[in-house]
Amino acid sequence: MRKHIPTITLFVALSALLLSALLAPSGLAQKKAPAKAPAKDKPAAQAPAAPQFMSVQVVRIHPGMGNEYQEFLRTETLPALQKAGVKMRSAWVRAVFGEANEYVAVMPIESMAQYDSPGPIVRALGEEGARAYGAKAARFIASSHTFCLQARPDLSIEPKTNEPPKLAIGFDVSVAPGRALDYESIIKTDFLPALKKADLKGVLVSRVAFGGDTNQYVVIALYDSFAEIGKGSPLVRALGQEGANRLSQKTAGIVLHSENAVWRYVPELSLPQLAPKAENR
């Protein structure tokens, strides 16, 4: 049975793509490799953009343990991550629609080489402390799956502000083998212009690199309220029902499966810990 990522991002407000997109002015700008000095008689060639990767952990907890699990994250997980030097963590929880008791944590991957060394919990707590931490966490967790996603800024619409959104609709899209370039072409030439016309707060796209189906894309639309979501499909608003139907037909034979869920951003379980706005104090 195929495993689908029950997505976010943000979230997504999400990590190298999500968190940096939401917390930095130029978050969707791709990292570029250092440029070499051009040869005297040759024009300078632009260095290829280095891929951006993020770690996405999807955790399903036992029913009725939500408050305890969140307290565990606040009092034990976040302090340990901060002690280990982790700067960014984007936390999301299912919001009304979708399977309950699921949490998503997104963290940027600075380099794949980081996985050749002990993880942040071990660095912060030591081997024995990490084992004790794992035993505590196991009380809450029914299942856990970690994916590596590659951010695709070229298929995304940069968020309009650096403020984390309150909500995100995450679309899990599986594409037929060998049709990835066709799907990406439709995103660039059809979907992005329509979504820009619909004036969304942002659309973030990534693709599974490791840990799942590599023909799977995660598309995240950012919102600040259910009232905004309730305005209806942005494609219908931009193109009308007939235009949206024609666009949907273009993906026939390319998109094999698509499902969505609504996610709520949880600032108190995220890093950095943002100070509350003056009006909310």
Number of distinct helices: 6
Give the strand order, joined by hyphens, for the main sheet.
Answer: 1-3-2-8-5-7-6-4
Query: How would the global form be characterised?
Result: globular
The computed structural class is: alpha+beta
Radius of gyration: 20 Å
The percent of residues in helical segments reads 25-40%
Report the uncertain regions: 1-34
* Beta strand %: 15-25%
Summarize model confidence as the mean pLDDT: 85
Q: Would you state the CATH class of the domain at 18-24 and 51-171 and 202-225 and 261-270?
A: Alpha Beta
**Helix/strand order, N-terminal first:** HEHEEHEEHEEHHE
Distance from first to last alpha carbon:
48 Å
Proper CATH architecture of the domain at 18-24 and 51-171 and 202-225 and 261-270: 2-Layer Sandwich
The name of the CATH topology of the domain at 18-24 and 51-171 and 202-225 and 261-270 is: Alpha-Beta Plaits
The beta-strand count equals 8
Biggest β-sheet description: 8 strands, antiparallel, barrel
